[in-house]
Model the fold of this input.
Amino acid sequence: MTNKHSIDGFVPRRPGGQLGAQSGDLQEKPADIPTGLRRPEVPRRTIQPGRKQESDLGTVRGADISASLKDIALDDKTEKKKSKKRLKRDKKPKSKKRRIIKWSIIAVVVIILGVAGWILYKGLTATNNIFQGSILDIVQNQPLKEDENGRSNVLLLGTSEDDPGHEGAYLTDSMMIVSIDQSDKVVDMVSIPRDLYVEYGMACPSGYEGKINAYFSCINPDFESEAAEEERLTKSREFIGEIFGLDIQYAVHVNNTVIKEAVNAVGGIDVDIQGSNGDPGVLDRNFDWRCNYECYYVNWENGVHHLNGEQALYLTMARGSVAPTYGLGNSNFDREKNQQKVILALQQKAISTGTLTDVGKVMGLIDALGNNLRTNFATKEIRTLMQLGIDVQPENIKTIDLFDQENPMVTTDNVGGASVVVPVAGLFNYTQLQTFIHEKFSANPITREGANVTVLNASGVTGLAQREADALESEGFVVNSVGDAPEGEYVDVEIYQIGEGFGTTRQKLEELLGVSVQTTTPPGEIPEGTNFVVIFGKDRSADEAATTP
Done:
């Protein structure tokens, strides 16, 4: 009989080899099976009490199958590992140069992120020091506070406590009011004469009266306390606001470092320098002791010059106080004009370089100025200030001159042996000055032009001239005089202009009253300073007068 083998090498079972056969049959050695093909004897296992007995043959066969599968799995894993090793050997190793480039890029990115994070942290910290409120409020865009005329008024105060060797370091030698119209995007700036003689309303080192630049340091001499600084800012804006007839909502205190770093931050500024009184330029040797008089800090010919931070600073401080000097014949008044020029140039340069459009740059600038600037602006108003800096065009920034030769509001005088500045109207008389500022800060172009109008009554109707004057003032005209016209024949309305200019006022008068302006001499004596004369004739009725505009 031919032996039949299964495909796995095992001999087919015989009837006696079934699981149900007697155990004794499994121990017999068949004579016809070659020794090499005999199944190995499996030792008899002792059945543990409580456990179910299994078939020894089933256990052996299961163990053999499991072992075979395990060997196959191990062989498969071994082959895969060898295959991976071959693949790794086949891959071209990265060059040392590529590895260096890779880690260099990673290092640069880490450094950039670290520096950016540090700048942001420092900027936010400085912002918290400078502005009022939480640093998280910077995401807001809150409009600025306004007065009853819709203006946001800011008092700028500059001191020199960071300038070694400077006498009177805490005197506010630089003072300016900046008035902002957020709706029309218009800004007006007026410099306050540092020598304006005022009454302090309290006892100061110089007494109860003195120059206005000493008021700031007189309020609280503690210059290390934040509370004292806040008190100085609050009382200064209230005090100066009362003198100029303004509600000043904000105050900013800066020192010399602010000017230098702000100008340097935008890469310098271009300023049109012009010597006063026809001089060919500006020279002031007051600062040259710093270089033992071997250099010039303030020495420019007339024309546009590119200034760095230090040069811009000394231009704002120059007033021709040390000979030889020229181009600063008006002393502090020339200095105030140059201060306004520097601020305008700085604003224009900041826009052109994109500084005010980049929160990161603004934060970096604030960080640089963190220890040199204090204000009561709120953090949530920063974005509004940035946007105004972008939106306000140079032609809409107006500078106001209190020492204008044609219409001065202040003049020089001598009080107690000291050279001071006083209102033209008289010592401590600020009425005319306040009217002038109100006109210049007005959003009405007629009021801003400030032409003086005299109204005369030739109608014979009592009180008509006053009613007409009131109607004109409601339109923004400045009426400086009301009275009766000289005897004569007049038509319904006659308008005369004295001198030239004031085109906006002229056009508006013609539009409202329906007649053309005459350039001939008006009848009678006219008050000094009058620019227009309006005469209402006999054909003008009381009813018409009440409804003229």
User: Anything to note?
Assistant: The longest helix spans residues 56-90. Residues 1-40, 42-57, 114-125 have pLDDT under 50 and may be disordered.
